[in-house]
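Session log. Operator J.P. requested a structure for one protein chain; no other inputs attached. Running the standard single-chain path with token output.
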Amino acid sequence: MSVQTIPTLLKMAVLSGGMMSMFFSFHDKPSQAVLCIVLAAVLAGFDEYIVSRLNLATEFGKEFRSLAELISFGAAPALIVYLISLHKLPVSGLLLASLFIICGALRLARFNIATCVHRHHTGLPIHIAGCLLAVLTLWSPILNHMELTVILVIALCGLMVSRIKIPKISKPHLIHKKSF
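Structure written below.
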């Protein structure tokens, strides 16, 4: 196995994490579903680190990463929030869950057509939005109130498609910094 295959294998693992999350969601195991999303986020971060550190970025990798992230951090968290909470709002709950996926897809598409590298994210990255939605839906007692769940979903959707600049913290030079 060559070093160039490592990022593709990591992206496959990220995609598998999202699929496993949805499987656990359908089988009424929300804790395991959320754990799969969090693990997928860790793997996505490791993939980003490896790709940038070893200069292995490709167009194929960028597109495959977006597809994997749409499943793992768009569809899987949307399914969790729908099955745990939004299903109580039959039509609008389904529309809100769909809106989360759509906004994630828009965020990823905007990222993919960017022509230059910035020191910041434009809008909230989907992996952060997806992890927040999944974790807060499962473990936050505040979200037992439907209104707050709806507000959270709408806020995350708005942040993903916004033009807000969010500093990047996953730079390789920051990982090796020693603090005393």
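Operator note: Residues 59-84 form the longest helix (26 residues).
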